[in-house]
Prior knowledge:
The protein is an alpha/beta fold. The chain has helices at residues 9-21, 32-74, 78-114, 121-124, 127-155, 162-200, 230-238, 243-250, 270-283, 305-314, 331-337, 340-358, 375-381, 387-391, 407-414, 439-443, 466-469, 480-483, 500-508, 527-535, 539-555, and strands spanning 258-262, 291-296, 319-324, 367-373, 396-400, 433-436, 456-460. It has a seven-stranded parallel sheet with strand order 1-3-2-4-5-7-6, with helices on both faces. It is elongated.
Amino acid sequence: MIKKIRLHPWGMVGAAIMFVLGLTPSLLPRDFFYQGLVCGLGAGIGYALGRGAYRIWHRWFSPRYAPRLRARLDAISPRVRGFLDIAVPVAAWVGVIAAAVFSLRWQHGVAELTGAQAYPLWEFLLVVPVGLVFFTLTLVVGVAVRGLARLLTRAAPSRLRAPVRSTLGWGAAIFVCLLLINEVIPGVIVSAGERAFSVSNKDPEEGVEQPQEAERSGSPESTVAFDGLGSYGMRFVDGGLRAEELAEVTGQPAREPVRIYAGLRNEPEVRDRAQALIDELERTGARDREALLLVLPTGTGWVNMRAAQAFELLYGGNTAVAAAQYSYLPSAFHFFAGGDAVQEAGKALITPVVDWWNSLPADDRPKLYLYGESLGSTAVESAFSGMRDISSSVNGILLTGPPDFNPLWSSFIERRDPGTTEVSPEYSGGLVVRFAQNAEQVRSFSGDNEQWGPTRVLYIQHPSDPIVWWSPSLMLEEPDWLREPAGFDRLPEMNWIPFITFLQVAADLPVSQNVPQSHGHNYGDELLDGFAAVAGLEQRRAQELEPALEKALEITQDERF
Length: 561
């Protein structure tokens, strides 16, 4: 099949242009593999656009202008033509390599803003061969699609006119491709992932042991079996500081924190896991604590240990932190599938717990807060219809790194106050919902108790986080956040380019956590300030506890999180 590929000159011009445009900067620094991926796929799109442009030229403009152009070309001497036949391809190759070298300056700029690694020149030059490999693969796929279209065209009724048959054939081929991309491939990936990750999620990690404190799920007194929690649930209930350690790192008296978890192996049905959480909340006396945090974990059930530990430090352990697993799959699989299953699970988990909390005496119950990171924020949002529903249900919500498809987040962004930006919006004067780019902006809300109401929702979203800003609409539509002044860690030289920006930000997704904290999809350094803000606590207290949090993570060996 590869032997049948005949490279069209117009297509190659389009491919070269898109290859070079793929070298422009995006949100995060890219290594040679992901940069080559962007350039190669971009070149494939450019090749298709070039072929399309030739068809338009040939159909509509060639009859009028081609004779004049041909006459001018015939006037060029054979020697000059021979020179151009060699010089043009060589110049194109030199231009591509020069562009790759120049683009390294952009990559260093992005790396400096995000505190990430800057790649050396020799490594980045590998972009060219890697890009050519991916470009070749796109050509092979294109030939396969064209072959399918021709096959379907021949299968169309012969009584139809040739243009109609061709249109039907190409339409059917495109439909088959879209069906594979949107339905079949995601379904196969999700199904295979469920089987694979359900096995790896079964056993505890090295060093994780069954807790003995009655305040923790999986303990001998618990109604939830330890071996059913899954590996991340086991780590969550075993991790964190105990009362004595909390008192040691804070210098203040502390209570034994309550940690509650329900895994898929404990209860297969999501409503039963929600009931298991409620039963554990009752058993551990969580209703008598000062504050209750319901965490919606990422796809696999992973709970950010920084979040749980930060919340416990703020209240001296007088807390209950509860979480439940809703899937075996990593967040990337759910992100790929659109997050529908996450939304259904989030609503089924949150609503019963909120109803239980509302059944307690209003003057004798803990404050209720929700926390979601990444897809966990999607799950949190799914339980509420809007701002009024949130205000009547909980005391506060902290959401970090929300994906673009989050319904409430998107609604708040679209209806933001006039004059505010998408990357740092203001909604309804910040009465309930607020947005922050970093910890410094979170701290700026301190002392604003009169203007920020009793129920508080805080979104923290880094300008460099591709999870927040990637969207299919990037392919053909320039977003507001790229028209606006760049956020604190986005390179101003990043500009929207049709198709290319979509590929660039998509390539940033797998490496969104390969940068230091406070950049990309890493929100660990903002959590203390974030919880203090939604709880209405003094920011000074949060800043004083930062060394204690680092010490706590060091003691519990959770510094990775």
